[in-house]
TrEMBL record:
The lineage of its organism: Bacteria, Bacillati, Actinomycetota, Actinomycetes, Micromonosporales. InterPro entries: DGQHR-contain_dom (IPR017601), DNA_S_mod_DndB (IPR017642). It comes from the Bacteria. This is DGQHR domain-containing protein.
Amino acid sequence: MLQAFADAITIANHQNIDIYNPDSGEGYQRAPVTARVRKAARYYDDKQGRMPNPLLINIRKKDMDEQKVAVVVDVDQAGYENAVLQGGNWIGTGRIGFTDDLELWIYDGQHRAGGLNQLLGDHEGYENFPVPISLTLGLDPGEEMREFYEVNTNAAPVKTDLAWQLLTKMAEDDPELREMLAAEDRDWVTRAYAVVDELEKLDGPWRGCFQEANRRKTRGDGVTIPKPQFARSLKPVLDMPSFKRADAATVAVVINAYWTGIRMVMPEPFEEASDFVLQKGSGAVALHRVLPQVIEVVRSAGGRLGQPEGYAEVMRELPTLEGESVDNDGQRSIRSGADFWRVGSVASGFSGDAGRRRLSLLIQSRLPSPAETIQL
């Protein structure tokens, strides 16, 4: 395996990708996604070609056997050849030459390679751009497939909590990034994180409840929900027209008043929050999905969005939610009030996005309609 550079036009002229064919069973690569190719092209163009990740490329054994490739090093050719024969290591500089009909098999980085192809077709000046590559010499297609499998199954992506935290931090100092996120309708992520940061400063139900990136949860720490999960649950609220341009501190005051109002009508789940799902994923997602309707009811009744009393009035029927639960002994019972939200009880059964959507609809059924409070 050699670390090298090749100009973009050489990569374009010699590349090949062994895409899996479901009819013949041959190949191993997934089919390219046009949107990802375009995104890679935009990234190369915006960064003036800077892409630190190398393409993983193989020159297959049959081409090596046919001597279509020559490696010439600047110093210590014998040392290089001995390392190849003995399976050892060698450090130095040199050049790789090959025939015009040689195929460079890309086993990781096909969308980046496709992005380069698009740039070469759309813009001038990229022909000689040096593309970093990691080049294996002499793998057969089966070994190449195993390399593809290892790369794509063992690589661990950055966890969402850290990725979103980094995105928020970068956007603070980068106006172009903020504009790009807004244009792609992804600025809600950074706005949501800003709201959570402001919410943590307020005296209310959520202080000390968020799990930060790279921080382990410990018994009795009061943490109930990962920060990105709570931030994601805020999207329906942040998408409301009145909150599109609202500053984070204002939105945090509204969120805090809403949950304080909920605590006023049903205090028990907040006293031992870890024993209930109300302040975990299911509760946060479902209750934020209904918050836009709650806000409209509070407004139509003349209430102020920063005062918890208006929310408590709208949510007064929340304790009437009930459902059937099965305990460890297999006994069925109807649970309502705080018990509805206890871990292992009814609310715990509303898992996944579909379950949380059903839970929000169930909550919604206990809310007054904004139309009921409108006076003409």
